[in-house]
Specification:
The structure holds 2 protein chains of 2 kinds.
Chain A (H helix, E strand, L loop, with lengths): L9 H4 L12 H16 L6 E5 L14 E4 L5 H11 L4 E7 H7 L1 H10 L4 E6 L34 H7 L4 E6 L3 H13 L4 E6 L9 H7 E3 L9 H9 L4 E8 L5 H8 L8 H5 L4
Parallel strand pairs in A: 1-2, 1-3, 3-4, 4-6, 5-6, 7-8
Antiparallel strand pairs in A: 5-8
Helix pairs in contact in A: 2-7, 4-5, 6-9
Chain B lengths: L3 E9 L4 H14 L3 E7 L8 E9 L10 E6 L2 H7 L3 E9 L12 E4 L2 H8 L6 H12 L4 H13 L6 H21 L16 E5 H11 L4 E4 L6 H10 L6 E4 L3 H13 L4 E5 L1 H6 L1 H10 L3 E7 L16 H6 L8 E3 L4 H18 L2 E7 H5 L1 E5 L28 E2 L20 E2 L17 E3 L13 H21 L5 E3 L5 E6 L3 H13 L4 E6 L1 E3 L3 H10 L2 E6 L5 H10 L4 E4 L8 H13 L1
Parallel strand pairs in B: 1-4, 4-5, 5-6, 8-9, 8-10, 10-11, 11-13, 12-13, 15-16, 19-20, 19-22, 22-23
Antiparallel strand pairs in B: 1-3, 2-3, 7-14, 12-21, 18-20
Helix pairs in contact in B: 1-4, 1-5, 3-4, 4-6, 5-6, 7-8, 7-13, 9-11, 16-19
Classes of the chains: A alpha/beta, B alpha/beta.
């Protein structure tokens, strides 16, 4: 009863658990794009682990037939990194929402970014807290009125792409849930990228913050002429507030921490307690 | 002449007080003696009073000693702080240029430590070698034994050079010569040559690192914290050499979360922390218990609450370890008593975590982390490593799952209403469900902190939650029966019993030995497993005696509370919570008082 499926199709990646999302939720598009991306890459089901935290979007692993780890709020990245460090042979994805990654788990995001451990991160950003029914999020726009900001949000809006670029992340991209084909391509590229791949996905919440129309208008594919090695230009694109650029902002191949750690163990020998304890003799 | 002596060195942190003590302890052990050390130091890197005490004996040593037989004071403050702990009739070694002692209850040997270091050696930092030379000349071990240790230490040091080694040798020789010629020895302490034994000398944290490696721990994540950092540093250095990986996490939440990630991947993984970090890990203890992912968590207790006293000893995290986490959260708690335990019980910790698929909390404490003991080498044998129960692949057995309840732990395929191919959380009589891992041809599943059905899918039905909670707790019931029972120590017919836990075992046993020698009738039971409690052994012991004393290094009597809640036991509580462990004299006094009443 092994889980090895030869030549898997999209159906093979999909579990029998039906998504709990509201009708029209952007996350359907992201799930669809992810399934498509995995199918295109023929990623072995039993060698792929989808890790999440808590939030509407964090139910994700339950809807897939790969291995999954639905952890606790904010901790998807530490779990994913521990798994990848211990098992570099696996394909590890970390998925979740803006609350998970930019608020309660923001501290982890910074360090995961700096370590460049080979994990693909897909963040479904709806600029609102959905599961808890409509409180402000770090990516809510300033002035936004929510249940927890009845007089308007006083804090500045978090800029995920600019932040990741400043943290030297080796793959920074954005997609839009309403364009699942393009998103699938980005996810494929993110998985193939060796290193920390950050994919910011605009994924609207039709129930608590309907941004489909605004994003349909704002979403603009990054020009084909943009050199993904040009960080200064990438930052300029990231700081653009009128438009929401989609595509790959920046990409750079450089050693990952998991590779480096496993390079170290090449000379490893089985533990021999008699020999080890000699240092205390 | 007595082949046993307890020497305390008091001085300033950063002056070589501790390193001098370390050298003395190691040299004595190599000279063939048993040793047991205790030290205090400030949390600051430089400055502040510190002390190092080593008990050196030709027979096995169980505690740090009630009093110092010899006190070496490197300054006036050390004298003021430590003189009350010097045995009446003991020996005070001091430098007359620092102070003149006023008490006449002991033997005094004046040695010009400062002058020898400054004028004769012309290198003040050799003062601790001068001190060691004086100790070697007066009591032993031989200067050659000390030199051997210094040589091997310096050979590993970046600061080492030929001049430094020469000066050290000279300091040792001149001081030894000085005390031999100038001091008339009138004390009884003399460490003569004894038969060499096959022992190793290490502290609790070093033994934990060795134990984790021997237990096949191959992933470690942690965040620096006193007094657990040496475990992290040891694992950082050693893991790559045996094929493991290491991560210094950004905080303790991340540390334990990443351990759960690695463990989910089928790799034995652990973290080590102290109270403040353990507090942060709480939510992940719940996740480990709920998602049934094995994890080993070392809590090197220090004095709390909050930041508390980072470098002081306390046994005050037991209640927290028992209850940390919201909801009904089964976990196991074990506590080593000796340096040997720190090695052997790492094997137990990982086997328990893997067998019962839950968090195992390993409660050591500051005194044990830094306690150096001489341990028989044969303790360090390869550890028994038991694999997790994996799902059977290839075979299906649909007959046994008619009611969704398997009597065999090994059957799991096709269980549950969802029709999922693999029911990760299948109900079994033991509560233990076979656990899969990615990438090795085993079936996939989703681990989750949400309440779930047998297949691991979210489920909030009352029946499901009831059955799942029962399943998770059933593992503890089974474990209580499977675990080795604690052994009674002392008088078989005693009417007075002592129940202890953690690093106090040797001290309690020494007190019992003394009490028995003085005609008292007393026995002890020492708990190494604190959750689940060894019911049979505990109830038998409690029933066999009329009174139970529970000595604990905490204010609230946390074991006494736990046993009170579990068995209705009304114990006599002896609590010491100043940051310093019990002495055998403390326990003996309690035995005497309780026996009188």
């Amino acid at each position: 009863m092994t889980q090895v499926v030869i030549n898997p199709t999209l159906k093979d990646y999909k579990s029998e658990v039906k998504p709990t999302w509201c009708p029209g939720c952007g996350d359907f598009g992201v799930l669809n794009a992810t399934l498509r991306g995995l199918t295109n890459l023929k990623l072995p089901l039993d060698q792929t682990v989808v890790v999440s935290g808590i939030g509407c979007s964090s139910r994700f692993p339950h809807f897939m037939k790969t291995f999954g780890f639905h952890s606790v709020h904010g901790r998807a990245l530490p779990v994913a990194q521990g798994l990848k460090m211990a098992r570099p042979d696996l394909n590890v994805l970390a998925v979740g929402g803006d609350g998970d990654f930019f608020s309660i788990g923001a501290g982890h995001l910074i360090h995961a970014a700096l370590r460049n451990i080979d994990v693909t991160v897909i963040i479904m950003d709806n600029e609102i807290y959905g599961l808890t029914k409509g409180q402000t999020s770090p990516t809510s726009p300033q002035g936004h009125v929510t249940k927890s900001t009845p007089y308007g949000l006083l804090a500045s809006q978090f800029n995920p792409i600019a932040t990741m670029l400043s943290l030297n992340v080796s793959f920074v991209a954005r997609g839009y849930s309403a364009k699942p084909k393009d998103l699938a391509t980005i996810i494929e590229q993110g998985i193939q990228h060796k290193g920390f791949s950050f994919i910011h996905v605009l994924s609207p919440c039709p129930t608590f913050y309907h941004t489909f129309d605004a994003w349909d208008e704002a979403v603009t594919p990054i020009s084909a002429e943009h050199a993904t090695s040009n960080k200064a230009e990438a930052i300029t694109l990231a700081l653009e507030t009128e438009k929401q650029y989609t595509g790959i902002f920046y990409q750079e191949e450089r050693p990952t921490m998991d590779q480096a750690a496993h390079h170290l163990v090449q000379q490893a020998k089985p533990f021999d307690v008699n020999q080890y304890i000699q240092r205390y003799a | 002449m007595m082949n046993e002596v307890t020497i305390r060195i008091g001085g300033e942190s950063g002056e070589g007080t501790i390193s001098g003590g370390d050298i003395l302890a190691l040299a004595s052990a190599r000279w063939g003696y048993h040793i047991y050390t205790f030290r205090t130091f400030p949390a600051e890197i430089l400055g502040g009073p510190c002390m190092f005490q080593v008990r050196i004996s030709d027979h096995p040593v169980k505690s740090m000693g009630d009093y110092a037989d010899v006190l070496v004071c490197l300054n006036k403050e050390a004298y003021d702080r430590n003189i009350t702990d010097l045995r009446h009739g003991g020996v005070l070694i001091y430098d007359p240029s620092d102070f003149t002692p006023d008490d006449k209850n002991y033997i005094t040997y004046a040695v010009p430590l400062n002058e020898i270091a400054r004028k004769e050696i012309q290198m003040f930092q050799t003062k601790n070698m001068v001190m060691l030379g004086a100790i070697a000349g007066l009591f032993g071990p031989s200067p050659e034994a000390i030199l051997q240790v210094v040589r091997s230490k310096l050979s590993r040091s970046r600061k080492a050079n030929a001049t430094l080694m020469e000066k050290n040798v000279l300091a040792l020789e001149i001081a030894t010569k000085y005390v031999t010629e100038k001091i008339t020895k009138i004390d009884p302490y003399s460490l003569g040559p004894v038969e060499k034994a096959d022992r190793v000398v290490l502290n609790g944290n070093q033994a934990i690192v060795a134990g984790a490696l021997a237990a096949q721990c191959r992933y470690f994540a942690g965040y620096p914290i006193t007094p657990a950092s040496d475990i992290m540093e040891g694992m950082a250095k050693e893991l790559p050499l045996v094929g493991g990986t290491f991560l210094q996490a950004e905080d303790e939440m991340a540390a334990l979360a990443s351990v759960l990630g690695a463990s989910y991947g089928g790799v034995r993984a652990m973290t080590a922390t102290s109270g403040p970090g353990f507090s942060l890990m709480t939510e992940l203890i719940g996740l480990s218990s709920m998602a049934e992912i094995p994890a080993v968590i070392i809590d090197a207790q220090r004095a709390g609450p909050s930041t508390g006293m980072p470098t002081k000893m306390e046994q005050s995290d037991l209640s927290f370890a028992l209850y940390a986490g919201h909801g009904d959260t089964p976990r196991m708690i074990i506590a080593p008593a000796t340096v040997a335990d720190c090695y052997e019980m790492m094997g137990l910790a990982f086997n328990l975590a893997d067998r019962y698929q839950l968090p195992v909390i390993f409660l050591t404490d500051q005194s044990l982390t830094a306690r150096v003991e001489s341990v028989d080498r044969h303790v360090f044998k390869p550890l028994d490593v038991r694999e997790r129960m994996k799902p059977e692949t290839g075979a299906t057995n649909n007959n046994s799952q008619q009611n969704g309840h398997n009597s065999s732990e090994q059957t799991l395929v096709g269980v549950g209403s969802s029709g999922h191919e693999y029911a990760r959380y299948t109900y079994t009589d033991t509560g233990i469900s076979p656990i899969s891992a990615p990438g090795i041809g085993m079936p996939a599943y989703v681990a989750t902190g949400l309440e779930h059905n047998e297949a691991g899918h979210p489920n909030y039905e009352p029946e499901d939650h009831t059955k799942m909670v029962e399943k998770r707790f059933r593992k503890l019931e089974i474990a209580a029966k499977e675990l080795p029972a604690p052994q009674r120590y002392g008088d078989e017919h005693a009417t007075l019993g002592i129940i202890g836990w953690g690093s106090t075992e040797g001290t309690i046993q020494e007190a019992i030995d003394n009490a028995l020698g003085n005609g008292y009738s007393v026995a002890a039971l020492h708990l190494r497993v604190l959750s689940p409690l060894p019911d049979d052994a505990l109830q038998q012991f409690i029933q066999s005696v009329e009174k139970v004393i529970i000595p604990e290094n905490n204010y609230s009597g946390q074991l006494a509370n736990w046993l009170g809640a579990s068995y209705g036991l009304q114990a006599i509580r002896i609590n010491k919570f100043g940051g310093i462990p019990f002495t055998a004299a403390d326990i003996l006094q309690a035995i005497k008082e309780v026996s009188k009443s």
